[in-house]
Design goal:
Blueprint lengths: L5 H4 L6 H12 L3 H8 L13 E5 L11 H12 L2 E4 L4 H10 L4 E5 L4 E5 L5 E3 H17 L6 E5 L3 H12 L3 E5 L5 H9 L2 E2 L3 H7 L2 E4 L15 E4 L8 H6 L2 E4 L3 H13 L8
Parallel strand pairs: 1-2, 1-3, 6-7, 6-9, 7-8, 9-10, 10-11
Antiparallel strand pairs: 3-4, 4-5
The chain binds N~5~-D-lysyl-L-ornithine (2YJ).
Length: about 270
């Protein structure tokens, strides 16, 4: 799993409005709308100003990424939440968030990035949320994916969840992975097709979700394609972007927004009921 770096998230805190506008142009929805639709909910039903979120910096492993917690907080504010970054890190930061009555905590180490609703016990993982968000974004860009052909590159955590969601939206999904057998196994589970000739399939697909760390050269992209990738660094080049009808990419925004929506809606609960 790629660790974000400071330059990958540089500028997020100051550009929330602009980023929301670019998203609206690419997929026809702002971040809040996309996040709630990704989990099958009506965005207008939720007034996010009722919720306070806290981003807690974590020093474990490779340590704090400058601007990470501030970017998470800015993304959440752009959706309508009240948000703050704790001044303390790690467990002391969690304590501070609880003391300051934060409703939803956001925190990440080098392996996992989670959100936790301390009122309901609901929690959310960034990889699953990212897959749901990108599937919804593709759906928006396509004006509905029913009967449309989508290529998912990469059968890891995000790719697997994306294939599950995209097939459930009625898309005809093809999937590929560099590890032999991985795409076949995933495809058979969800009624998708496994692809071996990746170059041909990239060129023949209009809707592409790159859920792998691999780079996709622009010469393979068809004119008018919708290219999307949650991965960092960005896996398409200038030629691919120039040919594309829409580009869906961000290092943090969509995944964070869907995590927040999942914690607000709180379908998943922990412990005894
Ligand atoms: O608090 C901080 O500033 C750091 N501990 C944040 C670390 C962020 N973590 C990553 O970038 C990892 N790759 C995990 C991301 C999970 C993506 N599904």
């Amino acid at each position: 799993m790629t660790r974000l770096t400071e330059d990958m998230i540089d500028g997020i805190p100051g550009t929330a409005w602009k980023r929301n506008e670019s998203l609206r142009q690419a997929v026809g929805m702002d971040l809040k709308t996309l996040a709630f639709r990704a989990i099958g909910e009506d965005p207008d039903y939720f007034d996010l100003s009722h919720y306070v979120t806290a981003s807690v910096p974590i020093t474990a492993g490779l340590g704090v990424i400058g601007g990470f917690s501030q970017s998470v907080s800015a993304i959440l504010e752009s959706m309508g939440f009240r948000s703050f970054v704790t001044s303390n890190t790690d467990i002391d930061g969690v304590y501070e968030a609880l003391e300051k009555e934060a409703d939803i905590l956001f925190t990440a180490d080098d392996v996992r990035y989670i959100a936790y609703n301390r009122r309901t016990g609901a929690y959310s993982d960034n990889s699953f949320a990212t897959a749901a968000g990108y599937a919804e974004a593709l759906d928006g860009a396509a004006g509905g994916l029913g009967g449309k052909e989508v290529l998912v590159v990469g059968a890891g955590l995000v790719g697997t969840e994306a294939v599950r969601i995209l097939t459930s939206k009625g898309a005809t999904v093809s999937v590929t992975d560099v590890i032999p057998g991985k795409a076949e196994k995933l495809a058979s589970e969800y009624g998708a097709s496994a692809i071996t000739s990746i170059e041909d399939s990239i060129s023949s697909h209009k809707y592409i979700l790159n859920a792998s760390p691999g780079f996709i050269p622009g010469r393979l992209i068809a004119k008018g394609a919708v290219i999307s990738s949650p991965g960092v660094p960005f896996s398409f080049d200038a030629e691919g972007v120039a040919k594309a009808q829409a580009v869906i990419h961000d290092p943090l925004d969509i995944g964070t927004a869907v995590m927040a929506a999942e914690c607000v809606v709180s379908r998943k609960k922990v412990g005894r009921t």
